[in-house]
Design a protein that fits this description.
- The chain is mostly helical and 300 residues long.
- Helices cover 63% and strands 2% of the residues.
- A hairpin with an 8-residue loop joins strand 1 and strand 2.
């Protein structure tokens, strides 16, 4: 479980970010995201912002996790209305329990379902349950007050809920198909970059983008729930199995040989280092502050 926890803070998971497109397979979520225009503006920056928030929810201390959850709920109050274009008949509200719960469960299942691909470690049913409860504990602050807004109490409940959503609620939408195909044409991330840095990095980004984009599309398609994958419009072929095997071999080798300072994202690395230092401090603490046996009367 120590390795699973590290996985939730690993940079390798970024290759599977497109698995979260199951979120926009729910038409109300797709209508809301399409209406905001932030995917079209710069999808890479949008995804980066989302990952930073997810890291706070997963790796922040309890006070910061609670603060981030309150902030997210407050900001999403404004996300309500009617879609446009293909979604003009869809009314949406981000804080509708069904929508909010779906986003949270999607994030938890993403971590669980990509662990083996990134690390080569296969969890049994009991270990998967422990992993789910670990995620549920840190995501608890995101729950809404109503019963419909609560996270599934067990992994079995989460699996049943997910299957039901795939069978009865999710749909292939123009937004989902277009945006998933766009993973091979990702815009260059610009957050935190100075203008000169953007100019210098742009040629390298355009050179690497087709290869990285294809790796993302193939990896995410293989890691997705089959029912969701069909909705993306991307068709898996036999040769994609070979490509994915090569990608997984590279990821798993990286997991084994890379040091934490490279493998882990800063907040996770910082948190694990803090916990290591706490253990070291406590290692040398006194077992008791009472007067030792045999030491009484005049110290001379």
């Amino acid at each position: 479980m120590k390795e699973f926890r590290r996985h939730t803070g690993s940079a390798l998971g970024g290759l599977f970010g497109g698995v979260a497109f199951d979120q926009v397979a729910l038409p109300e979520v797709a209508a809301a995201v399409d209406r905001s225009g932030r995917f079209a503006e710069n999808f890479s920056d949008r995804g980066f912002r989302g990952s930073l928030s997810a890291m706070l929810a997963t790796w922040g201390d309890p006070a910061d996790r609670a603060a981030e959850a309150r902030w997210l709920k407050e900001q999403h109050k404004a996300v309500r209305g009617r879609g446009r274009g293909a979604y003009r008949d869809v009314r949406y509200s981000a804080l509708k329990p069904e929508n909010w719960k779906w986003i949270a469960v999607s994030g938890m299942m993403l971590s669980l379902n990509t662990f083996e691909f990134c690390t080569g470690i296969r969890m049994n049913a009991a270990e998967r349950e422990v992993g789910y409860q670990m995620l549920r504990e840190v995501f608890m602050d995101l729950e809404l007050p109503s019963a419909a807004g609560k996270l599934p109490p067990t992994l079995a409940d989460a699996d049943s809920y997910y299957e039901e959503m795939v069978e009865t609620k999710l749909a292939s939408t123009p937004f989902l198909v277009e945006q998933f195909a766009g993973l091979t044409r990702l815009p260059m991330p610009t957050l935190g970059m100075k203008p000169l840095e953007r100019v210098v990095m742009r040629p390298l980004w355009y050179a690497l983008r087709p290869v990285v984009g294809r790796a993302i599309v193939v990896s995410c398609s293989k890691a997705m729930h089959p029912g969701v994958q069909k909705l993306t419009g991307f068709r898996l072929r036999p040769h994609h199995d070979v490509e994915f095997a090569i990608i997984c071999a590279f990821l798993q080798l990286s997991w084994k040989v890379l040091p934490d300072r490279v493998l882990l994202l800063p907040l996770a690395r910082n948190r694990l280092e803090y916990e290591k230092l706490v253990r070291a401090h406590r290692k040398y603490g006194l077992e008791s502050f009472a007067v030792p046996e045999g030491r009484s009367g005049c110290p001379v």
